[in-house]
Structures are given as structure tokens and as C-alpha cells.
């Protein structure tokens, strides 16, 4: 079976006032199904840019990006949005739950957007996902009424809503205290064991050390991949 | 301090330029408010000063004396010696008839003895010839339309029973009276020869006097002296009318118009100031972090207020600059439209300085007042509060209303989102709702005023007069013969003999007023009085009179008062007792009523009438015209000559034409308020998009495509539009009533018979949906086109 992520000779330049800045240089990288990958590196090295390539938020200047068997270069923004909703669960550093929807509704929203499950199944499924992240009892609260760690767990449930093969996160634990970060991290490990592919940017050395595969980026080049 | 201000100024201008759409939107909303007020000030300023100047230029008469049997030129000159009289001139003014559309209509014929020597009520040449020769007429320019004729056309007039063809050879401009379309009858100028052919004489019967400036306050005394002089010279004076030469006859009506429009203008200004409040508070909310940072590095509250005040100033300047040229031109056009309605020419276009000052003041000051609260609250934010503000922004929606909305189950998620988003920033929502609601309520209220006018006029004229046509015969006819004859036509339901004539009513106070004397059967089936006090005429009344409420209100006439009636034409003065006070709109509310029998005694006649009111079995305009033609034919076969006829539809149109001007203007203003409402909603939606751009990015990241995003914002806009619609309907009921009442009081000194414009609800529903869609489509599309990266990286 093909790898979930296939990156070949990826280059990325940003046009700035001072001219083109090369942020990623000839990156090639494959991630197999079920792998749990940490992306580390100094600030400004291109980690976020690399992750954005996988979600289609940024587009390569050259090279090829295949995710879950789909060539991202070929899609427009709307196709990309639908595809992303079904195939990639995105987790943000600041959780980014919609403030006017309850936790439960936030988790159901991706299913609404992508029409992934029959309407009658959406709510039980969302409740099940919230149960998995230990939030079943908070389901009807607004995000502002729960703690940061709980919000991030809700965001994880949301990322799982359409059962995507790939989950990416840009410093998903960056805004949590170390104890809560630990719990959330354990949750990622559990997902990986259940066959999800995860790729997370992290600054936390301790956490990175415990991940099976670490990709180190520096000046836009993958300098180490273990 | 000064340096820091300079840096801040750079920041301000960069913000304004960076948010060009927002800058334009705020400028636009200020512009509309300024436009609403400015336009009206321009119209009022230009129109008032121009019609005053035009009116003054014709040297209007202050005293008008009617001598039906004519006065010799030498005796007119004699009046110049009466103390206080500055100048005296006379004309022949007669009502005749002409044929229009195969029916005889009344026409006013005027002979100006020496057209080039006019000094009072000057009539000016317009187009074509200026001297009418025998067989020619010069038409008053506003009468051409009523006659449906052009220069070069001919008209058929009645000359002592035979028909005579006259040629229109030119037009003239008469400005001492309100326009022909209000008065009803076309006016033409002829020479004395032609008058002789038409009337058999060329008596000069109308004398105009001006009063020397130092005697202006003695106008009434001068008029009495002049009357005395004429009577001592053996003339019978039918009527003396006093006029204010400083005020154009239409000024009263215009003043009401300006008042109503002024109120609406101020309202649109108020609404547009809400938009400024909304935008500034959004701006401040968006920049809370920046404010925190500025404070952290040493700026104090005052400094920050000053920085944002500069933003407000720029908004105000832009908005005013945008509105001013528009308001100047639109205001002049409105003034021009109104001037045409009253047959006056404006002077050429020029800016109104008064209006410029008002607009500058309003455009610069109002935005500041509107911005004070959000600026103060924003600038006072502490560094602590500012830096702890993180997350998606744009209001948490964590308040009671949105929690309550959260309880609503079963809505599709996208709609639930739209609904709850709408209430995220309650203050903003409230101001937007008020704006839209008032826009809608005013719109419906204006239509209701229109409907109420139609209703009132319908009730008063159709309901009150109850006839379909008025026939005037050439000579007196026997009532006992002509009534059954007319009633023998199978389409005629009923006919009654009535009498109408101008008369002078002398009040107990010594005041003399001009009235329209109406007399009919005391058991009339047609006329339905609207009594305010006392009773209607009864059989056996010897000398009872029912007066119009206008005399009760303006002259203090009471039930039981004794008034004298002077019918002119040599009839003796008679005394009458006021038994009732009635309301009647015809002839500017001057009508008074006595019974036909009582009048016969004064006129020393029996069983005679010259006018007949007739009611048909069908009342639509087409039947009225058709049956009238048939009845004329029937009368002709019996040798009865019909002098002229008037169908009720025409009478009604005369009364209505004035009010239509008002309604047109009200609609213009309500369009403005609706526009402000629409822009308000659009402003709110674009602020929302701006504030929620991160959220949009998140939604796209979890699978929403452009359609979903558009749907969410459109849905929110429609939710607001619909709520405002419901509120507008509720608010429109008292507003419509109040407005109909105010307009009625101003125009006819009585509340209108209220009619709610239900069709306005349907119109407003369509408008509000269109507005809700248009207002959200641009912001929503721009939201949908934001890439995820752009929206997530948005500040
Ligand atoms: N839209 C953009 N335009 C121009 N330059 C950009 C843009 N986005 C990122 N860059 C540049 O690309 C480089 C890599 O940025 P990136 O955000 O990927 O770094 P990062 O490794 O995630 O850093 P951090 O750990 O601080 O988040 C940086 O030098 C940044 O300035
Ligand atoms: Mg980063």
C-alpha cells in the first residue's frame, strides 16, 4: 500500500519585498500509514511551511506533494477545502473552536461541511468521539466555558470527525501546560496505534524524544530523519 | 509627545488606506446622512429665497377688490389718492367656458388693459406673441397642459351661446396665484375686443392695490378706505381680499413639506451616525492588542483617543466631501421640481452657502459624537486586558441571548451558526437593527400617509359630497322640472338642486372673510356633514348656517354667534345664526352651508336653480364621463343648455395633486433611510467578515468550501434582515399613525382618516430580502475568497 505522505523534490519560495526567499529546499519525504512523526527545528526553519504543504494551505513552488493518494498540486481552493475536510484532520495551536457553537456542534461541523455521514449518525458519532477524548460530559458547553486542555481535546475530536487517514498539528501542545500537554500527547499515541498517521510540529524536546520518528528541519532542509 | 503623535498619525493614515473598503463604507454612510440633511437645506434655502425674489419681482397686490359691474379707469386712478395706497391697477377677470374633450369646462379669461404698463401682479411674456389680437389668446404657460394644447392650436370657447374659435398665439407667465393645476381652471389672456365678443361687455372688474411700505401695518384700514371710496362713487364692491405680499401663496404648503422632510433628514443622519458608532467600535475592538502595546510603551489614554479621533476626522471629511456636491445638485433639482409645481422659475444653479455650512458642521461633528463611546471605552483598556485578549475574536457570543438561541434545536448547523453569529456583538446588532427597522417603518409609514390621504380625500369628497357630477346650466331652471327630467335617465340614481357662490362673511368680531356659500335641500341625500359641534340644518330653519371648522379655529366663531352674509351683486346683507361647525376640505376649507329654501328667500326666487348635483348608479370615472355626456344630450333635447360639468373624479384630482408632491418627497426620504439601513447592514457584515477571518480560515481548514462560507454569512444577514422586518412592521403602526396625524394637521388642520398601507409590508419584505442579500454578498464572497493562509495569518 502507498505511503500516506509522498513529498518529492519540494521547493518553496516566498516573494517578499527583499526578493524571493527560499524556505524549503529540495525536500523529499515519505510517511507510511500509522507513522507518528515529529517535526522539529529552530524558529524560522520552515516547519510550519512544511506542514502547510500537507494541508494545502501553502502551495509548492516546485516538486510534488501526494497526500492519501491525491496530488495536491491539481486542486483549486474549494476542492482542496472539501478534500481536506475528509482526508486531513488539522489541529491548531490556539484550538480555534468556533465560539458560538457548543463543543458537540463544533465536532459535528466537519461532517456537515463534507456531508460525510448520514445526518442521523452525526450526533452519535460526535458524542462517541468526545467520549474517546474524555469530554462526553462537556458536550453541550460553549468552548469559552471549558479549559484550554479540554478545548484542545475537543479540537482533536473535531479533527477526527470525518475519520481522516492523516492528522497534522502545528504545535498542538504549544499553548498547554506540561501536564495537560502530556495527556494530549498520550492521546496522539493512542491514535497512532489505531492506525492514524500523525505529523506534528513541536518545540517540546521531551515529547519529541518519545516519538518514533523525528524529522529535523534547518534552513529549509531536512537535515535528519530518524 | 509631538513626535509620538506624528508616528501615530502615520499609523492612522496607513490603517485608513489599508482598510480601504471600511474607510469607504464609513465615508459613504456619513455621506448619506449629510446628504439627507444637506439636500433639504439646499432645497429650502434655494426655493425659499428664489420664490420670494420672483414673487417680489411681480410686485404682488396686497389688496384685491372685486367690483362685478366694472369700474371706470379714471376711478381706478382715483384710488391712488387714498392714504396709504402706493399704486392701483385693474383688470377684467371673467370665468367663461371652453370645450375640452367634447365637454364644456370652465376657463378664466383675463384682459390686461395695457400689458406693457403693468406695475402690480405683473404678468410676463413667455413664448410667441405678447399682444393678443381679436380672436387670439395668450395662454398662461401652466395652462397649456390642462388644455392639452400648443401654441398655434385653436380652442373653442362659448361666446354668448354661440361657439367661437380662438387661436393660441403665445404664452405668458402669471405668478400671483397658485398654479392652474391646483386651481383647476386654465387661464388665458385676451384683449378687450375679444372679451366683448365672449361676454357682451369689457368691464374691468378686479382692482389691485399696493400699500406704501410705511403703511404696511395699516393694510386692513387702507383696504376699508379704498372700499369706502369706491362705494361712495356708487360702485358695488363684492369682495375685498387682503394678501401678504412678502409670502408666496404656496409658502405655507412648502413649509409643511420642509418640516416633514427636515425630520426625515435628521433621522437619516441619526441612522448614519449609528454606522459610524458600529465601525469605530469594531475598529477599536480589532486593534485592542495594538492599543495595549501602545500603552505598554508609554501612550496614555488621551494620546490614543487623539490618534483615533484623527481617524474619525478623516471619515467625516471624506463623507462630507462625497456628499456635498451631490446634495447641492440633488437639492437644486428638488427645488426645481417643486418650483415647477407652483409655476415659478428658479434662478440658475448656484451653491447654497447656508447648506454648505450646515453640511460641514454636521459632517464633521456628528461622527465625533457617534464615536465618543467606543473611543473612550477602547482607549481606556489596560495593557493587561489588551494582551490577555486572544482567540478567534469578533465577540465570544457568550451572553444570555446567544445561549438562549443555543437552546433552539433542530436547525441545520450552518443556519444555527448564522443565527448565533448574528447576535455575537449585541451592541452592533442593536444599532443595525434599529437602522433597518426605522428604514422599514418609515417606508411603510410614508405609504400609509399616501393611503391615508387617498382615504381622507375619498371619504371627504366622495363620502361627503356623495355625487358623481355637478351640472351648471346657462340659465336658471325650474327645480320641479329639471330634477325629475335628469332622474328619468336610467343610469341616474338621484339628483338635487344645489347652489354655490362666493360670498363675504362678516363675523361678530368685525372681521370679513371670503367663503364658499353652499346651499342644498336640508334633507339632502348627498352631503354628509362631519360635525364637530352643534347640529346640521333642519327643515324649517329660517336663518341657520353651518360654518367650516376653519372659521371656528382661526376666527373664534362659536355656536350661537350671528354672522352676516354678503352675496355681492346687489343682494342685501343678511344675518344668520351659527348652528353647527362642520369640516369640509373643498376650496381650502372655506365652505359654509345654509338651506336651499332659506337662500331662496334671500335671492327672492322660488323653484329655481342653476346647478344640479347628480348621482349615478355606477361611480367609476369612465361611467361618470359617459353618463354625463348622455345627460347633457338629454337636457339639450329639452332645450336646456348646460354651461359646464364637473365630475367628482376631477374635483378629487384637484385636491389630491398637491398632496402627491408631498408623497413623492416622502418617498425620496424613505428611500434614503432604506439606503442607510442597507449600508448599515453591509457595514456590519463586512466588519463581521473582517473580525472573523481567522474563523473562516478554520472552517475552510475543516472542510467548508466557498458555498458554505457564503451561506453562513448570507444566512446571518438574512436573519438580521428578517428580524428587522418584523420589528419594522411593529414600529410602522404607531409611526404611520403619528405621521398621518402630523401631516394631516399640517396640511388640512385635521388628522387624516388613517389607512395602513398593507401593500407596504409586501414591498418592504422584498426590499429587505434584496438588501439583506446585497449587503452580505460582497463581504461573504470576499470572505470565501480569502485563502486559509491569509485568514489564519490575519492580524
Ligand atoms: N507568507 C510568507 N511570506 C514570506 N515569508 C514567509 C511567509 N511565511 C513564512 N515565511 C518565512 O519562511 C520562513 C519559515 O517560516 P515558518 O513559519 O515555516 O518557520 P517555523 O519553522 O514554523 O518557525 P517557528 O518555529 O517560529 O514557528 C521564515 O523565515 C518566515 O519568515
Ligand atoms: Mg511555525
Give the helix level of chain B as a range of percent: 55-70%
Q: Shape of chain B, please?
A: elongated
Number of strands of chain A: 10
Q: Order of helices and strands of chain A, N to C?
A: EEEHEEHEHHHEHEHEE
Report mean pLDDT of chain B, rounded to a whole number.
83
The structural class of chain A is: alpha/beta
Bound molecules: adenosine-5'-triphosphate, magnesium ion
Most strands sheet of chain A = 6 strands, mixed
CATH topology (fold) name of chain A: Rossmann fold
Roughly what fraction of the amino acids of chain A lie in strands?
25-35%
Tally of strands of chain B? 20
Q: List unreliable stretches of 5+ residues of chain A.
A: none
Q: How many helical stretches of chain B?
A: 25
Radius of gyration of chain B: 34 Å
Main sheet characteristics of chain B: 10 strands, mixed
Count of individual domains of chain B: 4
Task: Describe the 3D structure.
- By secondary structure, chain A is α/β, with parallel strands linked by helices.
- Chain A has a single domain (33-59, 75-225), classed as P-loop containing nucleotide triphosphate hydrolases (Rossmann fold), CATH 3.40.50.300.
- Chain A is built from 7 helices and 10 strands.
- Chain A has helices at residues 47-55, 77-87, 103-114, 119-132, 148-159, 178-193, 205-209; strands at 5-16, 19-31, 36-40, 62-67, 70-71, 88-91, 166-170, 197-201, 213-218, 221-225.
- Chain A has a 6-stranded mixed beta sheet. A 4-stranded antiparallel beta sheet of chain A has the order 2-1-4-5.
- Chain A is globular, with a radius of gyration of 17 Å.
- The mean pLDDT of chain A is 87.
- Chain B is α+β, with helices and mostly antiparallel strands and 795 residues long.
- Chain B folds into 4 domains: 1-59 and 264-389, no CATH class; 63-242, no CATH class; 391-464 and 651-795, no CATH class; 469-618, no CATH class.
- Chain B starts with a helix and ends with a helix.
- The model of chain B has no long low-confidence stretch (mean pLDDT 83).
- Magnesium ion binds next to α1 of chain A.
